[in-house]
Fold this protein.
Amino acid sequence: MLSLDFLDDVRRMNKRQLYYQVLNFGMIVSSALMIWKGLMVITGSESPIVVVLSMEPAFHRGDLLFLTNRVEDPIRVGEIVVFRIEGREIPIVHRVLKIHEKQNGHIKFLTKGDNNAVDDRGLYKQGQHWLEKKDVVGRARGFVPYIGIVTILMNDYPKFKYAVLFLLGLFVLVHRE
Amino acid sequence: MAAAAVQGGRSGGSGGCSGAGGASNCGTGSGRSGLLDKIDDKPVKIDKWDGSAVKNSLDDSAKKVLLEKYKYVENFGLIDGRLTICTISCFFAIVALIWDYMHPFPESKPVLALCVISYFVMMGILTIYTSYKEKSIFLVAHRKDPTGMDPDDIWQLSSSLKRFDDKYTLKLTFISGRTKQQREAEFTKSIAKFFDHSGTLVMDAYEPEISRLHDSLAIERKIK
């Protein structure tokens, strides 16, 4: 009953209108994609927005962090950096504790989560004691609280994510503007 | 079969039955046959409170009247322009996606920047195109000159229906092929005149309006 009614609209469309519906959907996806890529280019970081898992009391689980990764900005003790350990996929958001800096600008640094009792040496790769610039994804510049909970939910329950995306896609494809 | 054909011939003047064999409902049915027959012959039923659905159905029906009753040929130039711009934008997005996938981030920066900027430029072009070139025109139809000598006359349909308003304005523009003069006629009526309470578009109330608009423009031409 209900499902056939809204499909009527689609059946009445001619080829061009159908193509336009598909294009509409494509343009929405493209806009989101382009904004994401644009942010990547502007901030210089490959993942300009991350969801923080835990760094109480500075950030809570589900906060969204905005990062930059400009080569010119030096890393200083006390800054919050997002880094990725070799071989692991999930980036970690922790604070810089110690830095060793050479004359040529090459640095090694040690991190620790605000809410942890010990530094991150236990998290690093086997045999690795310091992090280097190449492991850094970006430096925290700003944050929006709580919004990331949706992303965490979608990652924990992938079926929910697919259902939402599918329904959104269907709605855009069928509904005429 | 023969009876239906005769009936079709006799009622040709009232602009309806195009002799499609089995169709018993000969309102403003189209000539297409097959599966599409059922959906096109069914009276259009929409949610009467949904403004955009109302406007779309009125526009589509006006299009049908002009194309089928007067046998004009639709010109897809405007629509194709819009489709092309959108396709090019999506193309830029796809290029960016694939390039970034093949050359991971830092190396792909210049290409990405180029694609992103091009995409937003195309969006700008699209907005300008829809606002100024297309306006609210949804049909451009040509009347082929029977003698084949003069250029075609062009009929344009455009409409507007404000949000939460019930007044629907339909404007018909006639551009003469020979003299390049432009004449227009429009009417503004409440949509309540064309839909019944269940949301079905009543063609019997709508079609005469369109015909009246058309004839008022056509007659002026004849007098000239």
